[in-house]
Amino acid sequence: MKTATTSEVVSFEDFKKEVINDYKIARISRECSLLGRKEVLTGKAKFGIFGDGKEVPQLALAKAFQNGDFRSGYYRDQTFMMAIGAMNIEQFFAGLYGHTDINFDPMSAGRQMGGHFATHSLDENGNWKNLTQQKNSSSDISPTAGQMPRLLGLAQASKIYRNVSGINQTNFSENGNEVAWGTIGNASTSEGLFFETINAAGVLQVPMVMSVWDDEYGISVHARHQTTKENISEILKGFQRDEENNGYEILRVKGWDYPALVETYQKASQIAREEHVPVLVHVSELTQPQGHSTSGSHERYKNAERLAWEAEFDCVAKMKTWLIDNNIATSEELDEIDSQAKKDVLEGKKAAWTNFTAPIKTEQQELVGLLNTIASQSENKVFIEKIANDVASIKEPIRKDILVAARKVLRMIIKENSRATLATWIENYTEKIQPKFSSHLFSQSDKTVLKTKEVAPTYDATAEDVDARLVLRDNFDAIFSKYPETLIFGEDSGNIGDVNQGLEGMQEKYGELRVADVGIREATILGQGIGMAMRGLRPIAEIQYLDYLLYAIQIMSDDLATLQYRTAGRQKAPLIIRTRGHRLEGVWHSGSPMGMIINAIRGIHVLVPRNMTKAAGFYNTLLETDEPALVVECLNGYRLKEKMPTNLGEFKTPIGVVETIKTGTDITLVSYGSTLRLVEQAANELESVGISAEIIDIQSLLPFDINHDIVKSVAKTNRLLVIDEDVPGGASAYILQEIVENQNAYKHLDSAPQTLASKAHRPAYGTDGDYFSKPSTEDIFEKVYAIMNEANPTKYPSLY
């Protein structure tokens, strides 16, 4: 007899032991779901979404899952995580309670609700662990089907490692033998991200196994409202591969049939792992015993017949019957396992709650003692003692209770000597606790962008002026030669060398896997990059135009931007996103929705170089860091002339550092990207009327002016104008807040700080459309002149 996880012949006793252990895991997982729901309903946990009804297929999946493999799943995979040894009972409940210590909740350190799973790809210092020696799970996100794009990249990484020579695979791959395993609920297959990913994986032929857990419902909505023919594998059967065409292997299996599930997943693993062919496993006839979540009962939308069927075909109950019918275990033995599972889960739950509350109770006692001391010396003794007693009486305090009480008392003693003591306590407590909720939005390792230093481009005496796109092209050439793990892909990026020829000849030189064309599918272009970056590669995902980034903004916002944060620094994806934007022609090729972008993707650096040398320097910088970034090249700058540097691939543009490109004394003009050329022209024209403008290139919107150099300029000129191509109130409002509020530039202003933005609509077509939609040289000149007129109307009489 062969086990599920190896080809070795084993005894019946060993087989029996393995299968019974599977049943134990299933029972423990089910009890966690049942008790977890009670914890939510009693108020100890905020929200519950559990994996009951999906236990047995997840056991089968776990048997086929090997070291080095990756999961990209959804929030019902708790049994799988237990089966691969990545989560225990106490950790399950720690996640449910939101324990902020990653040693207790290794999934997210309390930053995600329960049911969102992850393993650690990084150590506490942000260094890669050996991913080939552990079973890996990428960090889950809640948006339905949001796990799909990243899954594509996780699978593609195996293809790259198997087929591209020269890459150091240490820690990341064993010759591309790893499989990426996806899971999704049947209703979420209605999402566009599911179909986009399925199609892309079929085209790319990557080792991906996609499991659909089909329980016929999406929350309360039946499959007949979700899926054509109510059957996802039926409508996808055109993807089935045959002798003449690549495609998928499509497998179907009942979710309560343990031996068939084990066999199916072994087959899926072999096909994907050995042949690098994607596999779809449609697991049907599953149940959801507690309904969708603790927000409501499924009895409201399932009729008596369906509920009776679910009771009969519950996968754990069916597995128990199978064990008895096949003389693997007796009913009494399994009843004992059931009873022990209840005890173990109850004890684990109690331990998790104790561990969660213990440090908070210590903090509670500390504050109560301090408040009583303060009360004894205060005119408001009675009121402070009442607050202290109220805090002390809270049996299950949270940190909000503690800090609210302290801050209320502070108001009562604002004129008393003890104010300083309490204020210091509050400040120290906040400094200690706030990082538990806010750390790791960006990298905290020694490879953070903030530790990189500028390396200026160098030029020899014969440096010629060339089309700026050639600086990019030759710099990419240097990058691909220097970093074998670097690859770039996007629409028109390969064969023609991108639409602006910044990659001219690169595919021919480095091959179709490293410089690749892809289909028109922006979300999964991002997904390819995220997944490959999570596996140690250094991808550059190219989105053809900035406007098209909107297709991918959800993936950038919900997945990439939050990755380090939601894992408390235990996963990373240092993806570079390359695009081009600002001024060209018309509504869809010259938008600059920067305000939307910078507010949606906090956690990703947003870099806005004014020319291609600066852009090339950003790419060189980023490849020495471990953080994701968006680089927006100037769409109208590729044919402008720039000198060719001699240190290609080596010069680095600093991130978060502004550059003063013209000094002046009367007003500070702040802008970035394509608009800077207009600002420079306007500044030259302003000189003719006696106005001296200082021009600062922001270069980086996120992070913004980390050295606070702009306020130094404002302190000299005492006036400020921000010029931006976004709509009014967009990026210009963000920039103004950074300068006036965060840098305290208001102290130095003699005139009101102002902004000059585009019109509220998207830019119209043509040169006139650009002129009447976005700031022009004349607009900038007249805006500055009006500011100077208001300051000195005698010297600068009104133009209008």
How would you describe what is shown here?
The protein has 800 residues and is of the alpha/beta class. Helix content is 42%, strand content 11%. The chain has 27 helices and 22 strands. A 7-stranded mixed sheet has the order 11-10-12-13-15-14-20, with helices on both faces. Strands 2-1-3-4-8-7 form a 6-stranded parallel sheet, sandwiched between helices. It is globular and about 100 Å long. The mean pLDDT is 95.
SSE inventory with pairings:
Elements: H1 12-41, H2 55-64, E1 70-72, H3 78-83, H4 89-97, E2 136-137, H5 147-163, E3 180-185, H6 192-204, E4 208-213, E5 217-218, E6 221-222, H7 232-235, E7 249-254, H8 258-275, E8 279-284, H9 304-312, H10 315-325, H11 331-375, H12 381-392, H13 399-412, H14 419-433, H15 435-438, E9 465-467, H16 468-482, E10 486-490, H17 506-510, E11 515-517, H18 522-533, E12 538-542, H19 553-560, H20 563-566, E13 576-581, H21 594-600, E14 605-607, H22 612-622, E15 629-634, E16 641-643, E17 659-662, E18 667-671, H23 675-687, E19 693-697, E20 700-702, H24 709-717, E21 720-723, H25 731-742, E22 754-756, H26 766-773, H27 777-791
Parallel strand pairs: 1-2, 1-3, 3-4, 4-8, 7-8, 10-11, 10-12, 12-13, 13-15, 14-15, 18-19, 18-21, 21-22
Antiparallel strand pairs: 5-6, 9-16, 14-20, 17-19
